[in-house]
Q: What sequence folds into this?
């Protein structure tokens, strides 16, 4: 079987035919497995058409059977009998590490475009060194910037290592985001406290330009007082010169702080539109509630909401001018499609303490594929698909379905 066929079979084992209809046929199935943590990176077309080894198949079966979010329990990696479970499912049987630890040199792959450019990685943070962070939740450890010099460069991944007096088990996973939209794999820490984070699509940094992203850490059941920081060990890139290996984030200390809860409630908006109705059509309605206590009065910044379409309509191809509207005002700035999912990025929308505004998902219809009409049924699949942060701390708010 090809890798694409294996991805399809594994997805159907978990979700039935929910992810059929992609182009190529395995695309939506791969996205579902990527989101579930069963595969770590997406396949280029040539790789998906390649054969699947027994080791890779066994690893994917293991991950599928456990249906876990974070690939494998890092403790298993310490046992030689389970060492294969720590390998990336897209690696060959004898993998060559695409990121060389401690050197920052790029992976010698003749299939990658060659660049004579120089790359610089820098970082800032809104939190001062030594700041307290929640012992359960999602925290942006650093705002990172990739800068290219005279030539375009591509960045495929970054390897980091955790340091500090906290425990490795307190870090659930690490990843990168842009405007609250995840652009990389969810990566758990290895037994040596390292993690290789692969970008979903290579980041292209144009000559004399830059690309910004957030380095995000999910903390789970950490002891109060645990300290954590991260160091960049290597950057997987085609740049010939790299500055930024060895860069360290600030060190933060965990505490029992509880972030503000934001409630999400989908409102029923069933509607049928005739052929003559094509502009500013309402495809959904929802409500967000800032559940700040009366004595706290904390505001929240809404960043991104990921909607999944369970209907048969093709939102990416057939809908245009997609936006979120609140009280007649457009509050979103961009929509990014990814198979059956689309990320709506908000334009710095401030959800003030104890407010409960109602929003509408609006779009124009450019095309209709089915003679009986296309159907669109947008929903939020997981609480992680709603990204909002406290204005005062920049900590990720806890999302609840109401």
A:
């Amino acid at each position: 079987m090809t890798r694409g066929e294996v991805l399809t079979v594994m997805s159907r084992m978990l979700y039935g035919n929910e992810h059929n209809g992609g182009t190529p046929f395995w695309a939506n199935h791969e996205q579902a497995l990527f989101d579930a943590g069963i595969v770590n990176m997406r396949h280029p077309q040539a790789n998906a058409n390649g054969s699947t080894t027994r080791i890779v198949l066994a690893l994917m079966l293991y991950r599928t059977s456990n249906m876990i979010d974070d690939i494998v329990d890092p403790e298993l990696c310490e046992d030689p009998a389970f060492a294969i479970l720590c390998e990336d499912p897209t690696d060959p049987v004898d993998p060559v590490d695409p990121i060389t630890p401690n050197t920052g040199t790029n992976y010698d792959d003749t299939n990658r475009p060659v660049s004579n450019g120089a790359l610089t990685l820098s970082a800032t943070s809104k939190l001062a060194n030594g700041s307290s962070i929640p012992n359960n939740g999602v925290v942006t450890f650093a705002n990172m910037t990739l800068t290219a010099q005279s030539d375009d460069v591509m960045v495929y991944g970054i390897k980091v290592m955790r340091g500090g007096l906290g425990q490795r088990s307190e870090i659930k996973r690490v990843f990168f985001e842009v405007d609250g939209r995840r652009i990389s794999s969810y990566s758990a820490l290895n037994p040596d406290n390292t993690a290789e984070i692969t970008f979903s699509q290579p980041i292209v940094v144009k000559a004399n330009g830059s690309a910004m992203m957030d380095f995000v850490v999910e903390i789970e059941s950490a002891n109060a007082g645990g300290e954590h920081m991260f160091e960049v060990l290597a950057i997987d890139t085609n740049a010939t010169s790299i500055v930024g290996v060895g860069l360290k984030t600030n060190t933060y200390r965990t505490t029992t702080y509880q972030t503000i809860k934001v409630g999400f409630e989908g409102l029923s908006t069933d509607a049928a539109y005739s052929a003559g109705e094509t502009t500013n059509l309402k495809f959904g309605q929802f409500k967000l509630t800032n559940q700040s206590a009366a004595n706290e009065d904390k505001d929240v910044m809404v960043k991104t909401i990921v909607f999944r379409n369970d209907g048969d309509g093709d939102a990416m191809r057939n809908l245009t001018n997609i936006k979120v509207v609140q009280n007649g005002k457009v509050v979103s700035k961009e929509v990014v499609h990814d198979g059956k999912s689309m990320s709506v990025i908000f334009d710095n929308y401030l959800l003030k303490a104890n407010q409960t505004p109602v929003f509408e998902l609006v779009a124009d219809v450019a095309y209709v594929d089915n003679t009986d009409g296309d159907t669109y049924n947008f929903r939020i699949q997981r609480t992680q698909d709603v990204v909002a942060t406290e204005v005062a701390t920049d900590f990720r708010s806890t999302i609840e379905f109401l």
Summary: The CA atoms of residues 56 and 217 lie 28 Å apart. The longest strand covers residues 137-148.
